[in-house]
Predict the structure.
Amino acid sequence: MLGAAKVMTFVATAAPDRAKAFYRDVVGLRFVSDEQYALVFMSGDTMLRVQKVRDLRPQPFTALGWEVEDIEGAVDDLVGRGAIALRVEGLGQDARGIWDSGAGKIWWFKDPDGNTLSLTELAGSR
C-alpha cells in the first residue's frame, strides 16, 4: 500500500531556533516553514519535519541519514559549515572520521539537540 508513497522524515528539537539554523545553514536543506509544531525542510523531494518538543532524550543510534556519491567532499563541506565528526571507539575511522564498513563508507555527526545524523557512500557508487 505505501510502497509508492513518498516518505516523510522526522527528528525532534527542544531548541527550534538552533535547529532551524543548523539544518538550513550547516546541513544545507531548503527551509520551507516554521509551523506551530514543526520546522519544515526539504531534502531533495523528501520532507523533513523537525518536531518541536519540550523534552528530548536523543537516542544512541542514527536518527536520520543521507546517501551521497562523494563522502569525502560532502564531509569537507559539512565540516566547513560547522559540523563535527562523531568518533565511535573501535571503528577505525580515518582522519575525517569516515568509517569503511565494507558495504560503504559512513560518517556520523550530531545536530544541536544531540540527534545522530549520518552520510553514507555505498560501495561501488563512484
